[in-house]
Amino acid sequence: MHSPQHDGYEGKGSVYEYSVNDKNWSDIGDEISSMFPSEQLGSVVALSADGSLVAISGLRKGDNHEGVVRVFWKYQKQHLRLG
């Protein structure tokens, strides 16, 4: 799940991961937030088949308007950034 605005910053995105069991949603990992206020993290999100890896794009990175892709590995309830 992606949120295009977080902490009152337009474009500061966050990504959350949930699981559903018997119609109940539960958070299965920590929040992944943008590193820059205008990054727009979460524009595209892709999960590996087993859900252990997530690739997340952001349309901008800081003031230079370059795109960014971040890859995270889920270890227990933490998302560890790779690379």
Structure in words:
The protein is mainly β and about 80 residues long. The protein has one domain (about 1-80). It has no helices and nine strands. The chain has a four-stranded antiparallel sheet, with no helix packed on it. Strands 1-2-5 form a three-stranded antiparallel sheet, with no helix packed on it. The model has no long low-confidence stretch (mean pLDDT about 75).
Low-confidence stretches: none
What profile does the largest beta sheet have? 4 strands, antiparallel
| Helix/strand/pairing category | mainly beta
Count of individual helical segments: 0
In what range is the share of β-strand residues?
over 45%
User: What percent of residues adopt helix (DSSP H or I)?
Assistant: under 10%
Q: Gyration radius, to the nearest Å?
A: 13 Å
Shape: elongated
- Placed side by side, the strands forming the largest sheet appear as 6-7-8-9
Give the terminus-to-terminus CA distance.
Answer: 23 Å
Oligomeric state as shown: single chain
**Overall number of structural domains:** 1
What is the residue-averaged pLDDT?
A: 77
Order of helices and strands: EEEEEEEEE
Number of strands: 9
Summarize the structure in short.
This protein has 83 residues and is mainly beta.
Topology record:
Blueprint: E1 2-6, E2 9-15, E3 18-21, E4 24-27, E5 32-33, E6 41-47, E7 53-58, E8 68-75, E9 78-82
Antiparallel strand pairs: 1-2, 2-5, 3-4, 6-7, 7-8, 8-9
